[in-house]
Amino acid sequence: MSGFLAVFKRELKGYFATPVAYVFLVIFLFFSGYIPFKQGFFENRQLDMRLFFVNMPLLFIFIVPSVSMRLWAEERKSGSIELLLSLPITVKQAVLGKFLAAWLFLVIALLLTLPFPLTLAWLGDPDGGLIFAGYVSAALMAGGFLAIGSFFSAVSRNQVISFILAVVACSVLVFAGMPTTMNFLSSFLPNGLVNAISQLSFLQHFDSMQKGLIRFSDLAYFVILIIGWIAACGYILEERKAN
Amino acid sequence: MNRTIKAILAVLFILIITFSAITITENIGRGLKADITEQKIYTLSDGTKSILSRINQPIDIELYYASTAAVKGPDQIKFYNNYFEFVRSLLEEYETAAGGMINLEVIDPRPYSDEESTALAAGLKKFPITQDENFFFGLILKTGFGVQKTIPFFSPDRQNFVEYDISFLIDTAITREKKKIGVLSSLPVMGDDVTGYMAQMMRMQGQQPKEAWGFVGQLRQQFEVETVPADTEEISGIDILLVIHPKDLEEKTLFAIDQYIVKGGRAIVCVDPHCFADQPDRQAAMQGMPQSQASNMPELLKSWGLSMQPNTFAADMQLAQLTPLGQDQRPVKLIGLLGLERGCFNEDLAMSSDLNDVRVLFAGVLKDIREEDSPLQLDPILMTTSKGNSISVSGSYELMYPDPDRLLNKFYPGTEPVYMGYRISGNIKSAFPEGIDITVESEEGEESNQDSDQAQPQTKHLEAVAQGSDCGVIVYSDVDFISDMLAFQRTFLGMASVGDNNTLLLNSIEDLSGSSDLMKIRSRGNYRRPFEVVDEIEAQAEAETAEEEKKITAQIEGFQKELQEIVSSAKQGEEDIVGSAILEQKKALELKIREAEKRLQQVKLQRREKIEELGNKLRNINMLLAPAIILVVAIVLAVYRSLKRRHYIANVNKQ
After folding, report:
1. What count of CB pairs under 8 Å joins A to B?
2. Beta-carbon separation of A40 and B532 below 8 A
3. Partners of B436 in the beta sheet?
4. What does the domain layout of chain B look like in residue ranges?
5. Of A36, A119, A199, Cβ closest to residue B26
6. Among B36-40, B74-78, B370-374, B601-605, the range of highest mean pLDDT
7. Chain B 387-406, CB below 8 Å of chain A: which residues?
8. B590-603: per-residue pLDDT in tens?
9. Secondary structure of residue B424 in the 3-state scheme
10. Pick the CATH number of B41-173 from 3.55.40.20, 3.40.190.10, 3.90.230.10, 3.40.30.10
């Protein structure tokens, strides 16, 4: 436990010690505020954060891998991973510590978008439950993307490659649920398989949650996805350690 | 095995397990969910769940929404995107709750596609957006037994009742039999209920068969309508009972009505303290025999938690209508003839939320007399404005030849609405819990007293059910509103409905006929949440500029009038004499008009700019505020750290 806490603290502190994190925050906050207004939030006159959350998957496809790419690739490149894994902590503790620190950092980034709900509250009487559900689903989605990113960061020692691989993997899981992809797939795959593929998509689970309906299957999707990719990441690192 | 291959296989294995687990939880945890929206907009009402549990055949629901076309459409169309999302989510809930009996398909009908042809053939409404694109937002429902029903267009006006509309569609699609309506009335509303052949025969014999009232004809188009005799002991075999003008009904008939309702029957009851459609017998009137035109059944009304006073009527100065009281007479304001408009109908009930114009003629006043712990639920349907009040007359003769001024003088504005219609639901207690005794002629008596000339009347006890559950009654305190006098007008094409009177009756029947489940479906609440602040700003800006706008518009009108006068005077042949002067004047006026129009535009522009300015301000706050703060924090921290580092290096050098 102490090993996990030590990694978690070191990692979280690390984010705010470098300018990279601030650049990331500025870019994320700028676009998350800019896109809804660009897409007619003010003109629609509907007091909800649909336009804010609906673009989150696309924004996260680029933003989250940029956070996750350095998780392990940097340690491997600089050689500090040898030191880290030789300390009296298990790989599981190290993986979880790094993952949760990065996740918390992303949640902080999300919370910094609070001017948006505050704007809504100033403009009228928004549905608090709906906003809460939106944030929970966005945080879970960030966790899912991050787990995928951690795995690819552990796979390659080159940050750029791990970034690209994570972007591609996240995109596949987001676009699998897009109507156009499903239409395309249904032209040569049986319906059952197309449905199964769409069930694996981030979009389907994120959509239903951010509308204010929290289903067990949506929560389970994100939790299982995170556990699966983190386990795979852990396994890869165990292998490297043995090497 | 090579370690790398082993690692790849292991990772693949982990991912396969992950995705399998996701697929399994998708199917096993389907029912587990939490609707955390404030208005519980994704939670189906108990009524809908009950309807869905009765589905005995697969149902296909095709939701048509032209999402591609909506993108190309004007901003007003884009508003439907939110509404569509809501309808789709709600339908997904139907799909989940129906346990595999409902199959939902969302279709985006593209121009010239088969889907578009299907939508058009089914009668879905289309709105052309471009030369090719049409906008659709409707629903087609197909049952396994081949019944097809549609919602041609999801109108925003019905957004609060979208669940009711969908559930009603499903309920009627799975109920294949035509509903049977029984009409019990003291008036000849059914006419001479004869076949076409009999009617022909009567005409040949010089008799004119009496026609049924207009509403009966309308009901016959959708339902099976039959007469329930006014001296019945038991009412059964019908789905809805229509009691119209229950005047001097025998106790056994009242008992039959009571028991019909207590046993779960549905009824619409129209009572009236003075029914104008109940024309008194002229001969008897001439002989001076008093004739009442009132109907009531106080015992039953009381058991339903209501009362209606005799000779007391609902009145409202704001709603009173002008009407001529005789041929060639000027229309006068009759305080009892009320034109009910929006605001006079319960907007929380699906049956009355869409009504705009219902006319009642000297309707009675219904009072809620429920006890505090009553299990009944009373929902008002019709009411006057809050300035309505009741007026009383001394007897029915006062209304036989009404004096509008005298009646008007009796009225003084009230502070609360007066109610003229209620929907009662819940566990109704019988008005005759002990049952009743009726007199019958005994057959046994006849047999045993064969010598005697007369059969012996005997008393028979009718047992009662004391209390029922899930009862449903609608009571109106007017009969005339469904009479041909107020609800219909004869045109050369036949009877045509006037206002919403007939709609109110049909809606009442629909409300009761669906099932008790439909009555439990609540209004979904308003899912639209407007920018209140912006609306306020707009209203304020409008109020501020209204005066100026009015002034400028009046000025423009004045100038235009002047211009017209000049032009017309020129036409009178003086153009040669004052031609150039007129032309100059005309030019000057045109210039003034243009200037005024420009000023008007400026005023409107200012209003728009005010809103746009707010939009820009909010956009900047959301887009720049947080990044700016982060930047400042980052710079301050960088400077602080750099200073600290320098200080440290300096100190190290000193040491």
Report:
1. 178
2. no
3. B462
4. 1-32, 41-173, 178-279+291-310+365-385+418-439+460-527, 533-569+584-653
5. A199
6. B370-374
7. none
8. 788 788 788 878 87
9. strand
10. 3.40.30.10
